Amino acid sequence: MDLKKGDIPAEVRSWMGKQLFEQVPNNIVVIDRDFKVVIANDNFKTVFGDPDGRYCFEVYKGRKSVCEKCMAARTFEDGKVRVTDEVGIDKSGKPAHYVVHNAPVFNVSGEVAYVIEMSYDVTETRSLQKEYNILFERVPCYVSVINRDLKIVRANELLRRTFGETTGEYCYEVYKDRTERCTDCPAMKTFADGRSYSSRHTGVNKNGETTHYVVSTAPLSRSGGEFSHVIEMSVDVTDVHRLSEELEKEERFRRILIDNTLDALIAVDETGKVNIFNHAAERLFKVSRDDVIGKSRGRRFAPREFLDAMGEGGSSLSLPETTIKDSEGETIPVRFTGAVLRDRDAVIGGAAFFQDLRQIKQLEKDKLDNERLAAVGQTVAQLAHGIKNILTGLQGGMYVIKSGQKSGSTEKTEKGWKMLDRNVERITDLVKGFLSFSKGHTPEVQSVDPVSIASEVFNLYQDAAAQQNVTLRFQAQDDIADAYMDSEDIHTCLANLISNAIDACQTSESDSCTVTLSVQERDGTIIYEVVDTGCGMEYDIKNKVFTTFFTTKGLGGTGLGLMVTRKIVQEHGGRITVDSVPGEGSSFRIEFKRERLPQPEGQQKGEG
Amino acid sequence: MAKPEEKTILIVDDEEDVRDYLSTVLEDAGYNVVTAVDGNDAIEKLKQKVPDFISLDLVMPGKSGIKFLYEMRHNPDWAGIPFVIVTAHAHDDLGKEDLDDILSGKTFSGPSVYLEKPVKPEQYVKFISERLGVDIESEEGGQDEAELRDQLEQMLRGADSDALEKAIRALKNKK
After folding, report:
1. Smallest CA–CA separation between B80 and chain A, in Å?
2. Secondary structure class of A294 (helix, strand, coil)
3. Choosing among B11, B14, B15, B17, which should be mutated to test the A contact, i.e. which has the most A CBs within 10 A?
4. At CA A307, angle to CA A306 and CA A311, rounded to 5?
C-alpha cells in the first residue's frame, strides 16, 4: 500500500509529528525571538531539566544574558540553517559537548518567528577522538597517512621528530631515500584491494644508516567501500634485526668450530637425545650423524666411568686415557672430557669431548723406538773406544815384555805380563758386562711398589756404607701407587747409583759424608734421587758420566754402571739427569712418567 | 846434538798401563821419565822439576789435559815447555772438541801435533826426539816401508781436509 502525503489525515500527521518530536535521539528545543523556550522534547528535559519559560542561554549555559556569538540570533536575522559546536553544561552542571543545529521556523508573513535548536551530545565522541589522536601521535612507531600518490598527508610525532616535516613528500623518499616507488609497496597493495598488508623493509634513517622496518598498511575508510588514504605504520626493528643477525653469525661460528675441531664432540639434551655430533665424532665412532641426531642414543657413546660418575651425582669427569669402541667394535684409546650441563639445578643436557689418541700413541712409540735405536748406536761407538783402550794396554804389555827380554830384566818382563793379564781381564769383564747389557731384553714389567724396591736397595747397602763411614739415608713418600716396572732392573739402577755415591764419598776430602736415597711422586711422575755429599764432579766429567766405559775409578770399573743404568731407565720410558758441584757432591735423578712406563705383556700389541 | 840421557820427559796419563808402556818405550830410548796420573798430579810434578817435554793425555778424571795446558801456559816458567797430545779420543765426543780447539789455535798458538792411541813405539820416540833435537840411533837401522806408510796415514788423519784438497788439486795441476 502506497502512502502519499495527501492521503494522510491531518490529525494523523499531527500525531506523527508529535511522535517524531519526542522520539528523535536529539534534544529539541524551540525558542522565540526573545530566546525564551517555547517547547522542549523529553530528551531535552532529561538532560537539561524542564526549561519551560526560561531563556535558552540560562538552560544551556547557566548564563544571565544572550551569548556573545549566538547562532540562533543570526538565524533569526537571516533565516539560514546553522550547525555549530557548542560547549555547555548539563543539568547536573557537568560540561558537555554538543553539535547544535539551528533551523528557522517561518510565520505566514515570512519572518523567522521561532528557531528550532536540535542538539546532540558529542562529548563521548570528542574524548574518543582525543584519545585516538594521542594514540596516533604517541604510538612508538612511525605512523603516516598517505594518499593515492603515496604522498604523506599526515605524520605522527615520532615520524616528525625523526624525519622532520614530511607532509607532502613521497613516503619512499622519507623512509628509503628513494626517488621512485618501491616494487613491493604494501600501500599500493592496500590501495588495490583494500586489505591490510604487513612486510619487512629495509631503508635508511636520517643519518643515512641502514634501518630495518616492519611496515603495516590499512585502508583509511571514510564511508563504506570508497577510501582515498592508507594509514601506514612502520616499526624500526633494526636492533632486533641486528641481534638476530648476530645470533645467526654466532650460530654459524659455533657450527664451524664444532665441525672443524679435531676432537669428537657429542652433546645431548636432558632426555639423552643427541643434538650435536660433529664430523670428528662421525670419523671416530664410524657412525653417520644422521643416524644419531635427534635420537636418544647419547649414552652409548659415553665411557662407563663417566656414566658411573654421573650416576653418583658428579657433574664432570676427565679421563686422560680411556677407550671407546667404534661401530665396528674396534677399541680406540681416547682422552675423554665429559660434563653434565646444568642451568641452576636443572639438568639441561650433557657434552662429551673425545681426543683420538691413536696417532699420539704411535708417535710416542716411535719416539721410544728411536731413543732405543740411538742408544744402541751410541753403545756400538763407545764399545769401539773401549776396545781401543784395552788394545793400547795389550800393545803396551807386549812391548814391555819384549823390552824386558831384550834387556834381561825379569822385573820388566813380569810387569809386561801383568799388563797383559790385566787387559785380558778387562776384555773378559767388558764382554760379560756388554753381553748382559746388550741382551736387548724388554723389561719384564709387573705391577710393583716403587718404594719397596728402593727400600730393598737401601737395606742392601747399609753395611757397605757403614764400613766406609758413610751415612746412608732413605726418604719415601708413603702414598705412591704401584707402577709397571721391572723390579730387578730398577734394583740394578739404584744399586749402581748408590755404589757410585759411596765411592764418591771415599774420594771426598770430607770424612762425614751422607748419601740419601729418596723416592717421591710429582704430577704422575715417579722420581728416584740419589744425593751424595761426596767429591762431586767437574763439568766435563759430569757430561761424560753416562758414556760407556768412562770410568774415574782407574781399572776398578768397566765404566758400564751408569750406562746400564741409563739404558734401563730409557727402556722404562724414563730419563736420568745428573747435577754436581765439585767438592760438594752429586745428585742423580731418575724420572718415570707413569704414562710412559711400559705395559705388561699381553696388553701390548704387536711387540715381538 | 843433545843426548837422551840429558832430557827428562813427563808422561801424563790416567791409565797405569799406558804410563807403564810409554815410560818403558822412552826409557829404552835412553830418556829420563817422570809420570803423573792426571792434570793435578802433573802440576805437582812441574813444581818439583820442569821437564824438557810433556806427553799428555786429554781425557782424564780430576784435571783434564786441556785444563792442565791452560794452567801450564799461565805460568811463565812452564809456558814454553813443548808437548805432544796422546789421545784415543781424537774423533769422538769425549776429546774432539778440546783437540779441535788446540789444533785450530783458538786455545794455543804455535805448532802442536797429536798422536792417536794406540801409538807405535818407534814413531813415539822419533817424534819426541825430533822436537828435542836429540839424535837417536835407530836400532832397526832406518824406517821400513810399512812404517813410512803408517806415518803418512797418521799425518793424513790429523790433516785438515781443506788443506788436503788444496794439496791434491796442486798435484793434479802439476800433471
Report:
1. 26
2. coil
3. B17
4. 115
Residues 6+ apart with CB under 8 A from A142: A155, A156, A158, A159, A162, A163, A175, A213, A232, A233, A234, A235, A236
Chain B positions touching A393 (Cβ under 8 A) are: 15, 17-18, 21
* Rounded average pLDDT over B6-25: 91
Q: What is the CATH number of domain A254-356?
A: 3.30.450.20
Q: Mind telling me how many Å the CA of B24 is from chain A's nearest CA? A: 6
Fold classification of B4-142 (topology level)? Rossmann fold (3.40.50)
Q: Look at domain A139-241 and name its CATH class.
A: alpha beta
Q: Is the pLDDT confidence value at A510 over 90?
A: no
Task: Specify the CATH class of A21-123 in words.
Answer: alpha beta
Q: B24, A541: Cβ pair inside 8 Å? A: no
CA distance B27 to A409: 13
Facing A393 at nearest CB: one of B17, B92, B94:
B17
Handedness of CA A493, A496, A502, A508 (dihedral sign): negative
Hey, are the CB atoms on B24 and A412 less than 8 Å from each other?
A: yes
Interface mutation vs chain B, best among A383, A540, A542, most B CBs within 10 Å: A540
Q: What is the domain partition of chain B in residue ranges?
A: 4-142
State yes or no: pLDDT of A62 exceeds 70: yes
pTM of the model: 0.42
Q: What percent of chain A has pLDDT over 70?
A: 90
Q: Cα(B157)–Cα(B85) distance, rounded to whole angstroms?
A: 14
For A326-335, write each residue's pLDDT tens digit: 888 888 889 9
* Other CB atoms within 10 Å distance of the CB of residue A111: 11
User: Which superfamily does A441-608 belong to?
Assistant: Histidine kinase-like ATPase, C-terminal domain (3.30.565.10)
pLDDT of A556 > 60? The answer is no
For residue A253 the three cell numbers come to 661460528
* CB contacts < 8 A (A, B): 71
**In the predicted model, what is the mean pLDDT of residues B43-61?**
90
Amino acid at A415: K
